[in-house]
Design a protein that fits this description.
With about 1050 residues, the protein is an alpha+beta fold. It has 24 helices and 37 strands.
């Protein structure tokens, strides 16, 4: 590789060596090179990646930036004639009296071997002096260029810690994911890229783009100082604070203390960080960690130019002793070391035995910690807090800030009742997360609503509703703020017009390509060219089938009329045309008609045009479906052992042919389904896997392993979609019933009578289902582990929460929708539904009216180009459960009495999202739990966007139900009035008085009716007139 040398930098750094050499007698830092005749630095073959960088190599890297007046003794290359360059160099070496070199370093290589052989042959050899301490002093103080590289390395380290390591670890603790320490370390390393050759992956820019000042980073010059270290309570190595320890292959413990440490190099310069995370810490652990935080702040003020390493350590030890004398014996033996190109400079260790002084612009790794602490259960643990600092004139400055306060590093588990523990297998998440898993069912759920005391019931409902309303208000404010930040002025909107336009189709390249049949000047269908040729004024005019809308035929007397309609602009009556034509003044033919007495021929022509149009539409649809299908790479099969298999499994969607069970195999980078005869197979790569679900057979006939893919793939000639979102779902299922079990009753009953044998059969069925769930779940967990190891990113196994499920109609039929940790799913029957909660912008509850038995749920996605998902006909009795679930996963929601026409609404938003959010955003929908009244009071300050009358439409179900309820309108209105009266707070005496007064009026009216002497006809006429006049009368306003 061609290297351009920087003369100015080399001169300044070399001058630093000569200045230190000349003043070595008066400077203790350079005393090891005093009275030296020469300095010798040996460089053999490159060291392995496992070895730390050598001091001599560090010095050479620091000075590989230019040239001075030197004599170069060039050695002969491979096939050249050998020269005497090495002999002359050995001769010059032997003529010296005292030579300084790095005696603790050993080198290997061909040149080093020849050098050692020549040196052994010398009669007189110079005195060898170790110059390690002096070399450390040469490189300790950093110039501006070195400082720039170190600051870049620190920024990279902070970004990785803040935007990947800490959230990743929090997610693992939150979901209680099973992942080993070394696997998590490998995933952290993979953020810089992984793989080689065609399978190589670059840096994960989703992480790095969140950092500041990383736009000009050369990613080829970024690497880890050492493999990331992850230690938890379950680590085999215990809590070891050394940087040479390796992450173990056992699973991370989800409680206790977790230690994380890693460092990054940029252009060979290091930055390092270390953090302690604690789950459910006790008061002593919190106190100990706070002491570390306070000690770091104290040392940053104490460490400055001129302070010795010995004084720094003693000051730290005194501080710890003043806070807690018991911690003095657990304090680390040193509080850091110098750092630069060499990760750990042994000459500048901050310990009690080192008397070296620190100088401005030195870089140190400040590592504080307590080791061999014991918790209340008798288990040992350690704490550490590590950062990279820069020495200043008056104080030191942190270069690696962030994620060290107790708010970021201490996690507390939500307390759970004994009853809830028995009902739930999995524990609730550690902390609440955006669009994450539901915590647990709290006050306001079915259990408390079933209590008999009205006072308790009202209190629970009021408090739960108030909490939900307050939380929803916060979510709506956050949604509005994020929406404004997401879109800049005048940008971000597409209006849905991108890619829209009139396509051009060419049937023939010229007249010569026309078929011979055109000479007859008759209507001709050219299926090969997908063209209909029509005779117009004595000429044959071809029309591509895509320009034709449809064809129709009608009979008029003896003649048959054939009408052909064309695709033209402005066909959407009453709506604005959103597909512009390139020539606004163009004239279009909307239709053309032909009349003929040959009705049979026109029947045939009309059928051919219709069939050709269907084929063209089918081809267009297939082209759209294939546009997003990914071409998967090759599946890498496991070698050396048999793959883990799931036998007797069926796949959905099913393969062609007879339905027979096959096998699912887990390989190195994906899973493979093999049909029983081996004729068909399905390969699914882990890199294309987005979600993995396991649904037990507790209440179903199937136990399911469901794979939700990022991009669709082809299975044979079929492609399955989930509603209109372009994703792919594949299921591997096992039937819960045992086909080999005799259900016919032909077994010997062993003289049993009654229900004993049926009870035994039920028990055996439960056991079989439990064993099947355990077996398939273990297989699904192995898929998750293999995918995590292959992708370098954790894939968690998701299990639906059946207790939170509700019935709805996302497609044409009713389905049971079940929330999971990350999604809302329907996996039992096709078509499947998988909605990622993190992709949801807002949820709108529609047709929420008193008296309606059902309501609708509309989920609007953050990608506004996707149409909203409608889940219709959810029972009103489940509304509270749906609201509580949406609120628990931090999804903003709104309520409305009617359905909205979301097509125009989303079109309006897509045209200019900036205007939409600055005009109030989603506030036009209102909020949950009575936000409508708040919105009416302050409508002037709310959203300027209002839905048009056309956007507010009632569904058929609401019309049907309202018509059904008309017959009971009197009772409905009466019940509403009663509720209003009750809400005013009348006591029992007042209600009794009103009831007595009402009874008296009713008795008086009945008496007057009996005393009336009118005839039956008069009474009939009066009754008829009253009946006819009722609809036209006006109700009296209150």
């Amino acid at each position: 590789m061609l290297v351009e040398l920087n003369k100015a930098l080399f001169k300044s750094r070399t001058q630093r060596i000569y200045d230190g050499w000349n003043s070595a007698k008066n400077d203790e830092d350079y005393s090891s090179i005093a009275d030296l005749d020469a300095i010798l630095l040996v460089s053999g073959d490159p060291a392995s990646e496992d070895e730390p960088m050598r001091k001599g190599t560090s010095l050479q890297i620091e000075h590989s930036a230019g040239s001075i007046r030197i004599e170069i003794l060039a050695q002969a290359k491979g096939k050249d004639v050998p020269n005497d360059s090495l002999s002359r160099f050995v001769e010059a070496y032997g003529s010296q009296t005292r030579v300084g070199t790095l005696t603790k370093e050993s080198h290997t290589g061909k040149l080093v071997g020849e050098w050692e052989a020549h040196v052994k042959g010398l009669e007189s050899k110079p005195e060898i002096v170790d110059i390690g301490p002096a070399v450390s002093s040469f490189m300790a103080v950093k110039d501006s260029e070195e400082m720039k590289n170190i600051q870049a390395a620190a920024a990279l380290t902070c970004t990785l810690l803040k935007h990947h390591v800490a959230p990743k670890l929090e997610a693992i603790l939150d979901k209680e994911s099973k992942i080993t320490h070394d696997m998590l370390a490998a995933q952290i390393e993979a953020r810089l890229g992984s793989g080689e050759g065609s399978t190589a992956k670059g840096p994960d820019m989703k992480v790095w783009t969140k950092g500041k000042g990383l736009d000009e980073i050369d990613w080829q010059l970024v690497e880890f100082c050492y493999p990331p270290i992850i230690i938890s309570r379950s680590s085999k190595s215990g809590y070891d604070l050394r940087y040479t320890v390796e992450s173990t292959d056992d699973n991370i413990a989800h409680k206790g203390v977790l230690l994380v440490a890693f460092g990054l190099r940029y252009k060979s310069y290091c930055a390092n960080v270390g953090r302690t995370f604690m789950v459910d810490p006790n008061s002593n652990q919190e106190k100990q960690y706070n002491i570390l935080l306070n000690l770091q702040s104290e040392l940053l003020s104490f460490i400055k130019n001129g302070v010795s390493a010995r004084d720094i350590y003693q000051h730290a030890l005194s501080f710890v002793k003043s806070k807690d004398p018991e911690l003095e014996r657990h304090f680390v033996k040193n509080v850091g070391f110098g750092m630069g190109i060499e990760f750990r400079d042994s000459a500048y260790v901050l310990s009690a035995k080192n008397g070296r002084s620190l100088k401005t612009d030195m870089i140190f790794n400040l590592g504080l910690g307590f080791s061999d602490l014991v918790d209340s259960t008798g288990k040992k643990y350690s704490l550490h807090l590590v950062d990279t600092i820069r020495i200043g004139v008056d104080k030191s400055v942190l270069l690696t800030e962030g994620t060290r306060s107790t708010k970021d590093t201490l996690f507390f588990l939500t307390p759970e009742s004994d009853e809830a523990k028995t009902q739930k297998e999995r524990k609730p998440p550690t902390t609440s997360r955006m669009n994450g898993s539901p915590q647990k069912k709290t006050a306001g759920t079915k259990v408390l609503r079933n209590q008999t005391r009205r006072a308790v019931q009202d209190e629970v409902h009021t408090s739960a509703a108030a909490r939900l309303a307050e939380h929803q208000r916060e979510l709506h404010e956050k949604l509005q703020t994020e929406g404004i930040q997401r879109y800049v002025e005048g940008g971000g909107g597409s209006g849905g017009k991108e890619g829209k336009g009139w396509k051009k189709f060419q049937s023939y390249k010229g007249e010569a390509a026309l078929p011979n049949e055109v000479d007859r000047l008759r209507i001709f269908i050219d299926r090969k060219a997908q063209t209909v040729i029509l005779p117009i004024h004595g000429s044959a005019v071809p029309f591509h089938i895509n320009t034709i809308k449809n064809a129709s035929k009608s009979d008029e007397g003896e003649f048959t009329i054939l009408r052909i309609n064309f695709q033209t602009p402005g066909q959407l009556a009453g709506k604005k045309e959103d597909t512009p034509f390139e020539d606004p003044d163009a004239t279009f033919i909307r239709s053309i008609s032909y009349r003929s007495p040959d009705g049979h021929r026109f029947d045939n022509i009309c059928k051919q045009i219709t069939d050709l149009k269907k084929e063209a539409n089918k081809r267009e649809q297939q082209k759209k479906e294939m546009a997003d299908v990914v071409e998967q790479g090759n599946l890498v099969e496991v070698k050396g052992h048999r793959p883990v298999k799931m036998a007797e499994a069926f796949v959905r969607p099913a393969l062609d042919g007879k339905r027979l069970p096959g096998e699912v195999e887990i390989h190195q980078n994906g899973v493979r389904y093999q049909s029983p005869l081996g004729s068909q197979k399905i390969d699914i790569l882990f890199s294309n896997l987005k979600h993995l679900f396991f649904q037990p057979c507790d209440h179903e006939l199937l136990v399911i392993v469901h794979l939700h893919l990022k991009s669709p793939i082809m299975i044979g000639k079929k492609k399955a979609f989930v509603w209109d979102v372009i994703v792919k779902d594949v299921q591997f299922v096992r039937e819960a019933s045992d086909v080999q079990f005799d259900e016919t009753g032909n077994r010997k009953r062993k003289h049993r009578y009654g229900d004993e044998d049926e009870i035994e059969m039920e028990q055996q069925e439960r056991k079989r289902r439990a064993m099947l769930n355990k077996e398939i779940k273990a297989f699904a967990e192995k898929i998750a582990e293999a995918a995590s190891a292959s992708n370098g990113d954790t894939l968690d196994l998701d299990i639906p929460f059946r207790e939170l499920s509700f019935e709805g109609v996302p497609f044409r039929t009713s389905a049971r929708l079940q929330p999971t940790t990350e999604c809302l799913v329907h996996l039992t029957d096709p078509p499947f539904l998988v909605v990622t909660l993190a992709d949801i912008e807002i949820a709108s509850l529609e047709r929420v009216q008193y008296g309606l038995k059902q309501f609708d749920l509309v989920l609007v996605f953050k990608d506004f180009t996707k149409p909203p998902l409608h889940i219709n006909s959810i029972q009103s009795s489940q509304m509270d459960d749906v609201k509580n679930w949406l609120d628990s996963v931090d999804i903003p929601m709104s309520e409305g009495p009617v359905n909205l026409n979301w097509g125009p609404i989303m079109k309006h938003i897509n045209e200019n999202p900036y205007e939409f959010f600055h005009g109030g955003g989603w506030s036009f929908l209102g909020g949950a739990n009575g936000a409508e009244s708040d919105r009416s009071d302050g409508s002037d300050s709310e959203s300027e966007f209002e839905a048009d009358d056309d956007d507010l439409v009632e569904t058929e179900s609401s019309h049907d139900e309202s018509e059904f309820e008309d017959s009971a309108s009197g009772s409905d209105s009466g019940s509403e009035a009663g509720d209003d009266d009750e809400s005013e707070g009348d006591d029992w005496d007042e209600l009794e008085r009103k009831a007595a007064k009402s009874d008296a009026k009713r008795a008086e009216a009945a008496k007057k009716a009996r005393d009336t002497d009118d005839s039956d006809d008069d009474r009939k006429r009066k009754s008829k007139s009253k009946t006819n006049g009722k609809p036209n009368g006006k109700s009296k306003s209150r």
